[in-house]
Amino acid sequence: MRLAIVLYEGFADWECALLMAAARTHLGVEIDVATADGARVTSMGGLDVSAHLSIDALDPAGFDGLVISGGSIWETDEAPDLSATIRAFDRDRRLVAAICGGVSALAASGVLDRIDHTGNGADSLAPLRGYRGQTHYCNQPQALRSGHVVTAAGTAPISFAGEILRGLGLGSPELDGFLALYGREHEAAASAG
């Protein structure tokens, strides 16, 4: 199994980290990082990541899924246009996932127009040119999987990882236990509040 993770300069390093580590280390999933030009990128936290390939080289035939990380680039004119790549993965019924600002790329591509989805907020997607999925937006704190498409707010990296792995057919009681372990922090905060 092979998963493409799209990163770019200033990406939010915590959003895909748990997914990448769990998939690669515990489940044997091959992780390939794709960047705009195949070059190294630096995260918000200063983590330097080497790319395996460029976004233009992504071919759905060679991957089981496409994951797009969030970050502040999605709020700028420098945001990459991933529409053709996203639509190609969607057309081939490959898993397509995005978290935080990365959900904007899915919205702009039209993939979210007819399916339930979530993200950082309906207001962040509404002004996007080409987005027609307002009636399918679900305001919820955890990730949401609709068929082969997974979306999440930037505050939901744990459920995001879980929904992606389940969407790839890798769900198990062990995965559920692993995710519950990482989710305990949030349970404690909610009960203390």
Q: Output the structural class.
A: alpha/beta
Biggest sheet strand order reads 5-2-1-6-7-9-8
The number of helices is 6
Care to count the β-strands? 9
User: What's the domain count?
Assistant: 1
Q: Tell me the helix content.
A: 25-40%
CATH homologous superfamily, by name?
Answer: Class I glutamine amidotransferase (GATase) domain
Query: Architecture in CATH?
Result: 3-Layer(aba) Sandwich
Average pLDDT: 95
**Any idea what the radius of gyration is?**
16 Å
Strand proportion, as a percent range, falls in 15-25%
Query: What is the CATH T-level topology?
Result: Rossmann fold
Shape descriptor:
globular
The span between the termini is: 41 Å
Specify the biggest β-sheet.
7 strands, mixed
Spans where pLDDT lies below 50 across 5 or more residues: none
Which CATH class? Alpha Beta
Order of helices and strands: EHEEEEEHEHHEEHH
